[in-house]
Amino acid sequence: MITKKQLFIVSTLYFLAAGGVHPVVAQPVLTDSRIKTLVYNANDVYRLLTHHGYQAHIEFGEKEKIQTISVGDKIAWQVIPDGRRIFIRSLVSGAHTNLTVITNHHSYQFDIEATTGGKLPVREDLVYVVRFYYPDEYLPKSAAYTLPPVYADELMRTTTPSEAAPVQLPPLNFSYTFTGDEAVVPSRVFDDGSSTYFKVKPNVKIFTKNPQGDDAQIMTTPTSDGFLKTTMVRGQFMVRSDDGEATIYNETYIGGSK
Q1: What is the domain-level CATH number for residue 116?
Q2: Across the strands, what pairs with 46?
Q3: What CA–CA distances, in Å, run from 192 to 5, 26, 224, 240?
Q4: Which tens digits make up the pLDDT trace of 183-222?
Q5: Cα 71 to the chain's mean position, in Å?
Q6: Which letter does DSSP use for residue 151 in this model?
Q7: Can you give the pTM of this predicted structure?
Q8: Averaged in consecutive runs of 10 residues, what is the pLDDT profile of the chain (258 residues)?
Q9: In the chain, how many domains are there?
Q10: What is the extent of the structural domain holding 230?
């Protein structure tokens, strides 16, 4: 099933913030944005937009058992648990409330809203199915507490211990999502405002749109720690291999090109 998944890549900077609570032409990938995969983060509130008269369901991890469900407005919303899933449906047009779900492994906070009824809107944020991806289950535990190596190596080369404290690293953006095949999605991707870094499997090729609107393979440089670096930041990249293809979205990108 083709899904959309957010690639929150954990780093030291991320955990410091969370601690306070917060030319080769090819065909594009076809996806259905109503089926979404979200990256789990205990400090996130997940906004879900549903349509009045339609139901949506949330699917949690395979080992999770739902223990507690609490919804702010019980009159306007119907919430039904079934195994590791819950089904939600608005009973009132335009209903808006919050929802808390606690399982044996995680707690989840949702902001749920229903459209005002009528014709089903065509909106990318409309939800039919939500699944979760748990990065801690796939990344080495040490990766959650280390600065991305490309920057750690640079600090070691350019500073002495006495100089290290005042060094200001460029702000890093980890807010990337994808649609397509999980088999080719980078395990880590981020940018520093001028270059983008990908950690991908062997034989994965990276593309972006050229001025003619076609998909063109980009030039990358391997780093000593296993990343592929391209000296550009874009709103969208495509990754492809024999295992499939996916589109990577920079959720903070605002027009232009770098």
Answers
A1: 2.60.40
A2: 110
A3: 21, 28, 18, 23
A4: 888 888 888 888 999 999 888 999 998 888 888 999 998 8
A5: 25
A6: H
A7: 0.46
A8: 44 39 36 77 87 89 90 90 92 90 92 76 73 68 44 51 50 84 87 90 91 89 86 93 90 68
A9: 2
A10: 1-30+143-155+168-258
| Other CB atoms within 10 Å distance of the CB of residue 165 | 7
Q: What is the pLDDT of residues 231-248, one digit of tens each?
A: 999 999 999 999 899 999
Gap between the Cα atoms of 173 and 159, Å rounded:
24
Q: Is 255 exposed, middle or buried (0-12, 13-18, 19+ CB in 10 A)?
A: exposed
The single-letter code of the amino acid at 141 is K
Token digits of residue 125: 């944020």
Q: 147-151, long-range: CB within 8 Å, 24+ apart, which pairs? A: 147/11, 147/12, 147/13, 148/9, 148/11, 148/172, 148/188, 148/190, 148/197, 148/225, 148/227, 149/223, 149/224, 149/225, 149/226, 149/227, 150/197, 150/223, 150/225, 150/227, 150/229
Radius of gyration of the chain (CA): 20
Q: Is residue 101 part of a domain?
A: yes
Measured over the CA atoms of residue 81, residue 82, residue 88 and residue 92, the dihedral's sign is negative
Which of these, 175, 55, 35, 176, lies nearest to 112 by C-alpha position?
A: 55
Beta strands 77-82; 45-50: pairing state? unpaired
